Amino acid sequence: MKNKKNILIIDDEAPMRKNIRDILSLEGYGILEAENGLAGVDVALNNEIDLILLDCNMPVMDGFAALSELKLINPERPVIMLTAYGTNERVIEAIKKGAYDYIEKPFELSEFLIIVERAINYYDLLKELNTLRNRISPKEIVSVNEDPIIGKSLKMKEILKLIGLAAPSDANVLIQGDSGTGKELIADAIQRHSLRKEKPYVKINCGAFTESLLESEIFGHEKGAFTGATSQKLGRFELANEGTIFLDEINNMSPSLQVRLLRILQHQSFFRVGGEVPVPVNTRIIAASNKNIEQEVEEGRLRKDLFYRLNVVRINVPPLRERSDDIPLLVEHFLSKYAPGKKFIVSNENMSKLKECYWHGNVRELENNVQRAIVMARENFIEIESSDEPVKAELPLPGFDMIAIKGIPFKQVVEDFEKSLITRALIATKGNRTEAAKLLKIHRRHLYTKINDYKINIS
Ligand SMILES: Nc1ncnc2c1ncn2[C@@H]1O[C@H](COP(=O)(O)OP(=O)(O)OP(=O)(O)O)[C@@H](O)[C@H]1O
Ligand SMILES: [Mg+2]
Question: Which residues, including other chains, have CB under 8 Å from residue 17's CB and lie 6 or more apart?
Fold first, then answer.
């Protein structure tokens, strides 16, 4: 039993109304009636109605005048015009004014029912789309983020240039970068500067769902496709039609979903879960990954053919430590974002420490630290935490090749390793033995002995 839908019949001929009422009641629809446009508008204002059948020629207020009023009340609810045979010009006029369809009187029963049902389903879908739009959190279906991308470093300038070129091109984009480097911000900027900027922008994080949930989120499903699928559901791809979809953490998509995604890219259409009819879509894809994509392809986790289709424009976002020149700008930006109008003083010492940090969490971590510092600040002085050790303390470890050391006595391998480690420490500290000893966490004298023993010559 379908949810009861209400249909309003506006026609001045009582026998016609009765005829339609009899047919549609049998189909399970609820029926309301009005005998002219004016009365019809009144009924439409005061009742929940899913479809309106509207006669063209009526006294008091004719169908065309009523159509305009009805569209004002609810522009999305479908109105089907009932027209007399051979009034094509008027039909065109009505469709231009927003009628969903028309039916010529006298009509053929099966055709009439098909048109009515199609209109009802259409309105259901529109309503579903609206509730989905409201249900999905604003981070996912977007109120586009207008935050600027801050950065003057060479690397960021390159990226901004790429965004400018890629945005209007309609090509798919693949963004790769560590967590918190600004991938989503870049995706937003591309959308904002694209020709699709007025169209829907839908985001989905492929890492945030189980496989089957992700499938129905992306592709939608038909009623009854699986237990619990009590009604048809539109997927994010369909919601993003004519617009842009941001597929975050694409590397988390299972192989079978990758196949389905590839199909969309090849055919510009897809099947809802449990669906038998392909649904056409025209959606631009911006995908992001915080893993090394080439490696994901190499190791078989991401399909090569899918990769090629996504990787039309490629943007690699460098980690923050590789663009530390941008740190003062970013700090200034976040200070004015979170404490507008306040003037804070960041000491030079603090700033240089921030510039030397490793920043595992990249820009996001810096942003969080600035926010925290604002809360802790006394007067105008602010101390921004650098959450991890400065990069300088990082000592690159010599690599190990298990095959190369095969057959060499253990003592020899250890000595070689030690020698290599000390050499690297000396290079890292530009030959400063005291610093090198600190870095290696050994006693200075012990280091001297080793340097002598191994005859290391770096000063
Ligand atoms: N260049 C930048 N200028 C200004 N703000 C930035 C910049 N880069 C990143 N941010 C800010 O840092 C935070 C993290 O950025 P974003 O969410 O875009 O990163 P992400 O790469 O998508 O991270 P994840 O991989 O964790 O999803 C956001 O609040 C964003 O506004
Ligand atoms: Mg992100």
Answer: 9, 11, 33, 35
Closest ligand 1 atom to Cα of 186 = 18
Mutate to test the pocket of ligand 1, among 331, 364, 366, 371 (most ligand atoms within 8 A of CB): 364
Question: For atom 28 of ligand 1, which residue has the closest CA?
Answer: 364
Class in CATH terms, 320-392? mainly alpha
- For 160-316, CATH number out of 2.40.50.1020, 3.40.50.300, 3.40.50.150, 2.60.410.10 equals 3.40.50.300
Counting ligands in written order, which one lies closest to the CA of residue 317? Answer: 1
- Please give the number of the atom of ligand 1 that sits closest to the Cα of 177: 21
May I ask the CATH class of domain 395-459? mainly alpha
Q: Which two tokens stand for residue 333?
A: 């930006």
For the chain (459 residues), the mean pLDDT of every run of 10, in chain order, is 82 93 94 93 92 90 88 89 76 81 86 90 79 51 62 88 87 96 94 90 91 89 81 88 95 94 92 89 96 94 94 94 93 91 91 91 94 85 79 51 62 80 80 85 88 81
- Beta carbon of 181 within 6 Å of any ligand 1 atom: yes
The one-character DSSP state at 378 is: B
Q: Which ligand is nearest to the CA of 181?
A: 1
Residues 158 and 322 sit within 8 Å (Cβ to Cβ): no
Single out the residue of 183, 199, 314, 299 nearest to residue 249, CA to CA: 183
CA of residue 142 to ligand 1 center, whole Å: 16
Task: State in Å, rounded, how far the first CA of the chain is from the last one.
Answer: 87
**Cβ-based neighbour number of residue 378 at 10 Å:** 7
